[in-house]
Design brief:
Layout (H helix, E strand, L loop, with lengths): L1 E6 L2 H12 L5 E6 L9 E2 L7 H10 L4 E4 L2 H6 L1 H7 L3 E3 L3 H8 L1 H10 L7 E4 L2 H11 L3 E5 L8 E4 L2 H11 L2 E4 L6 E8 L4 E3 L4 E2 L2 E3 L3 E4 L4 E4 L8 H19 L6 E10 L2 E8 L6 H8 L4 H9 L15 E8 L21 E3 L2 E3 L6 E3 L3 E9 L2 H13 L14 H4 L7
Parallel strand pairs: 1-2, 1-4, 2-3, 4-5
Antiparallel strand pairs: 6-9, 7-8, 7-9, 10-11, 10-16, 12-15, 13-14, 15-18, 16-17, 18-22, 19-22, 20-21
The structure holds adenosine monophosphate and glycine.
Glycine binds next to loops.
């Protein structure tokens, strides 16, 4: 099959690696792609949030499957436009992508489906926000109601900081703080049947020991040695199937990748957020362990035949990815620096470009590269990932030094 993959970050590089390996894929085309993807797929230029432009490209390329990586095209209705051309697309409709695009919508669906999540209020003015903050008490959780690429959330003990964030955003969701380790669970679904991937853990804060501001994610690992037995079954039963049923009931079935962000609290798993696409950088580790051909799986979800798909096969061992970020990320990432040492297997490109003049590799985003490695266990995978990091040179770059460390040392406890 001919596959068109939309996007150009680390997640898409990880997706492209596995799609290219799938024997059923005769041609892999990526728009816009990135320098890491350049060696494994053809690249095309298109405005990825323009539904008719993407649909036209899919027709022109005679795509049998379109895989949409990032959230912005989903929310813009790109999946709908491609589907309207009769082409299979992995990615939800704009209506269904509201599970990610609007925190208020997601809460509404969770309430209707009795899905366990933090209690929350949507607030549009200072008085309402202050009331909500005082009802829940610190730590305060204030979320921008719209798409914010994982950076619209402030968690703070400082009431003034919480109020200021609400003022900056306009419309926010204020919610109860959930205490416990976080899990990212990806679920492939055709709207009815649903197949969970391996749970992973992301590192949202910029600094070691979970300090500093939230980012898009600074690293990830899988599997989770500390995860309670039965966790995935419980989440499928209490979260995923009720949510999918509620979306069907509303006439807007969710088909694609349902990303369930959870906190494992003393009272059990609670949903922190839904996303409508693969997570970044968790995808880098989860897909590194997937043995089942990826295109076949995504095509089954895109064509409503997931129930007939064989059970997934996983590789033994573990995977770790460490994000190499640009100077001053996440506040004001510096771009345009020359990178060396990035042309090794396992180095995933997230924010890079080639300079036209001399082909030099330059940083072009906040999260620049993801050093990804597998190993017989987490410790081996972690050592290999940090070996890759040490081989990368990027002026001013920084990375977390504690990705997967607490899990390896047995320091993660479910309350
Ligand atoms: P979100 O964009 O909703 O995923 O939030 C980003 C990050 O903020 C999460 O990964 C958590 O680390 C943190 N966070 C969000 N909501 C809560 C909550 N209710 N309780 C504790 N931490 C939260
Ligand atoms: N790693 C978090 C996200 O993709 O939203």
């Amino acid at each position: 099959m001919r596959v068109l993959l939309l996007g150009g970050g680390g997640r898409e590089h990880a997706l492209a690696l596995r799609l290219a390996e799938d024997a059923s894929v005769t041609e892999l085309i990526c728009a816009p792609g990135n320098p890491g993807i350049a060696g494994i797929a053809q690249q095309r230029q298109v405005d990825i949030v323009d539904p008719s432009a993407v649909a036209a490209l899919a027709v022109e390329e005679a795509a049998d499957l379109v895989v949409i990586g990032p959230e912005a095209p989903l929310v813009a209705g790109v999946a709908d436009a491609v589907r309207a051309k009769g082409i299979a697309v992995f990615g939800p409709s704009a209506e269904a992508a509201r599970l990610e695009g609007s925190k208020t919508f997601a809460k509404d669906v969770m309430t209707a489906a009795a899905v366990p999540t933090a209690r929350a209020y949507t607030c549009t003015d200072e008085v309402g926000t202050a009331q909500a903050l005082d009802e829940f008490g610190p730590p305060y959780v204030v979320k921008n109601d719209g798409l914010a690429a994982g950076k619209g959330v402030v968690v703070t003990d400082d009431r003034a900081v919480a109020l200021a964030h609400a003022r900056d955003c306009g419309r926010v969701v204020v919610e109860e703080y959930l205490a416990g380790p976080e899990v990212s669970l990806f679920v492939v679904t055709d709207g009815e049947a649903a197949v969970p991937l391996l749970p992973a853990q992301d590192f949202k804060r910029v600094g070691d020991g979970d300090t500093g501001p939230n980012t898009g994610g600074m690293g990830a690992y899988a599997p989770l040695p500390w995860s309670p037995t039965g966790l995935v079954d419980e989440v499928m039963r209490d979260v995923v199937h009720p949510t999918l049923a509620e979306m069907r009931r509303r006439g807007t079935p969710f088909a694609g990748l349902l990303y369930v962000g959870l906190a494992i609290t003393a009272a059990g798993p609670r949903v922190i957020e839904f996303n409508a696409r693969f997570g970044d950088p968790e995808t880098q580790v989860v897909l590194a362990l997937l043995d089942t051909p990826l295109a076949g799986l995504l095509h089954a979800a895109a064509t409503g035949t997931l129930a007939e798909h064989p059970p997934l096969r996983w590789r033994d061992g573990a995977a770790v990815t460490v994000v190499v970020a640009a100077e001053a990320y996440p506040a004001k990432p510096r771009t345009g620096d020359v990178i060396t040492g990035a042309d090794r297997p396992g180095v995933i490109h997230a924010g890079t470009v080639r300079r036209a003049a001399d082909g030099a590799l330059l940083s072009a985003g906040g999260r620049v590269l993801c050093a990804t490695a597998t190993g017989v266990d987490l410790a081996a995978a972690r050592d290999a990932a940090y070996d890759l990091v040490r081989g990368i040179e990027l002026p001013g770059a920084h990375h977390r030094t504690d990705i997967a460390a607490a899990a390896i040392e047995g320091r993660i406890a479910v309350p």
